[in-house]
């Protein structure tokens, strides 16, 4: 989305250097061409026909020492690059800590080292996450201190045997729910200690979901975070979630995020090296601003809660059900672990066992247990973010918006005050239905018939369960009435 917006709305860009991992059976050019075949780029193909000439693929890999860059590519980047967007990260919540450190911290240190040699560098934006400091209840737009230095952590990761390192690290990471948020936090600490006088900004987005308007409404291509829950819910797979429905969902549109990201590069360049005038009792003091600028990009206070987000999707699903649904979409939130685990066992896992047993009996391969184990792992990973509420400072984001002229505010819209959440969630569902699940309106007739069957099946099951529970209670207390 960032590449598409830069190509379409920033005509003065002469070249975009894109680091791409190599694959045995595909060269870099082929991988880039495959990426550009995505419908996301249809609009830029019409508006900027020669855009392909502006993209230069660079072979590199965040898992390899020094990014695996060749000397010639390093020298080219050093001499020609003026703006860096560092977005690459390992986003697996349950990734092994050593792997997460290599990609999220060590690779970031390599890029920072490279940036220090760039004579034309105007702006370096490191994309973090709003949850990198989730151990703090009110997250300000500043850098925090952490229990371990990035250099010491990387030294331990390199020198200690993996089993010894895995034993020692939980004491340090205990304030973070997973290796992703921990390593992103330590990467922020890296900039605090190593940035020098570079024009650096740290951009912390909330949970990114589908586009609001650009390049078209509802575009999305992944199932990270809340989108994974929304997809599983709409297919009737997930019916229970450990979540406080009254807490903010912290979702933001991907196109607004890309716009704010581009604007932050402009803002860092403008703010870097400004003179701060301080009046002291004795004299006038001039101080050059060298602090790293931090941008918390989160929804405003009128953003949807988890209740509003999930139940809006359920309402839309009634009109636009999915043909590939396996059951009637439902959702029950639980604040406490015990009732939640009870319902997961009897509502998710036990039915999965019965269905797999039936599949084996008729000669089909079992798949439901495996599916629900993945779903259970995914839901556990999201629990910390659904059961905690944070508040955020957004002064830098707001100031950046105010400093844009009217033309740029229209071109790079990211201000979410007076945002139409009702319309957006409808488009979010429709985009997910089209781009993730490949379902369109031609399938609606069959989908609605299937939804009606699921509905009546659900009513029958509810009635049967009611009579079973009534019979059990009657059996237990029958003696009192005889």
UniProtKB/TrEMBL annotation:
The chain crosses the membrane at residues 345-363, 454-477. CDD domains: FAR-N_SDR_e, FAR_C. One of its GO terms (biological process) is long-chain fatty-acyl-CoA metabolic process. GO terms for cellular component: peroxisome. It is an enzyme of class 1 (oxidoreductase). Residues 348-439 form the Fatty acyl-CoA reductase C-terminal domain. SUPFAM superfamilies: NAD(P)-binding Rossmann-fold domains. Its EC number is 1.2.1.84. It comes from the Eukaryota. It catalyses: a long-chain fatty acyl-CoA + 2 NADPH + 2 H(+) = a long-chain primary fatty alcohol + 2 NADP(+) + CoA. Residues 2-260 form the Thioester reductase (TE) domain. Keywords: Lipid biosynthesis, Lipid metabolism, Membrane, NADP, Oxidoreductase, Transmembrane, Transmembrane helix. GO terms for molecular function: alcohol-forming long-chain fatty acyl-CoA reductase activity; alcohol-forming very long-chain fatty acyl-CoA reductase activity. Coiled coil: none annotated. It holds the Pfam family NAD_binding_4. Belongs to the fatty acyl-CoA reductase family. Catalyzes the reduction of fatty acyl-CoA to fatty alcohols. This is Fatty acyl-CoA reductase. It comes from Trachymyrmex cornetzi.
